Amino acid sequence: TNTIFIERLRKSFSAGTAAEPHYIIKDVDLVVKGGEFFILLGPSGCGKSTLLSMIAGFVGKTEGRLSVDGEEIRKPGRDRAMVFQQADASLFPWLTVRENVEFGLRMKHIPRKERRESSDRFIRLVGLEGHEDKFPDALSGGMKQRVQLARVLANDPAILLMDEPFGALDAMTRRTMQNELIRIWQETRKTVIFVTHDIQEAILLGQRVGIMSVGPASRITDIYEVPLSY
Ligand code: ADP
Ligand code: ADP
């Protein structure tokens, strides 16, 4: 369940312009099993964000197969949520921490009491107790990233797609957040695909690390099993 299946996936942003299209991503084959913590590692510009955005359903594929539990991915779905590098871009500045975390639940018309229970739980899980009534502007980068994570978790997607979520944080905060994410993953057992260009981060976090080659026409060239450090 919640297994992501990718076969001969290709992406071109200039389809139809040439007999030989320019592929950003060419022939990616990958299976990520439900509950797995998978790392996608590769240099900047190799197509990691594009691949993640295709799994999220934000970006359409050009060729190949891309499915979750046998169901073709055509658009965004509640089973998948993306966490971005820039928390600012995803938080509403006019809403408090709690209101941001509850936003998706409100959209789903979850009753107030349940929303509250859920936001309490996830605010606690990411270590933001005591900050519920603050606005994003009053928070540090690491705290904003926690809010983004709490909001995504409150929506309870089966699959977390994380696009260099700690890339904009200072080294100390990044380390803290990495440990937090490990703890959260251990507690929730979500399927995670975590994109990074940082080898140390990849080795620290992942069970399996897929190496994406430098473009043009990137592929996943190797997959390494990493002995869990936690
Ligand atoms: P990464 O996440 O590994 O840094 P990206 O997926 O962001 O790589 O980008 C891979 C390549 O695809 C880059 O050359 C980028 O310029 C190109 N690209 C990404 N999005 C688009 C788009 N919407 N239109 C055209 N080219 C794009
Ligand atoms: P990076 O910092 O990893 O290069 P970017 O933020 O530049 O990532 O985005 C990389 C690519 O991911 C974009 O070119 C775009 O194709 C895709 N992307 C990012 N955010 C969205 C979004 N909200 N909707 C659709 N595509 C997105």
Helix fraction?
25-40%
Spatial gap, N to C terminus: 24 Å
Ligand list: adenosine-5'-diphosphate
- The coarse overall form would be globular
Rg of Cα set: 18 Å
| Biggest sheet strand line-up | 6-7-8-3-9-10
Q: So how many helices?
A: 6
Query: How big a fraction of the residues is strand?
Result: 25-35%
Q: What is the H-and-E element order?
A: EEEHEEEHHHEHEHEE
Low-confidence stretches: none
Structural class, from secondary structure content?
alpha/beta
- Total beta strand runs: 10
Main sheet summary: 6 strands, mixed
The average pLDDT is: 92
Protein name: ABC transporter ATP-binding protein
Organism: Paenibacillus mesotrionivorans
Keywords: ATP-binding, Nucleotide-binding
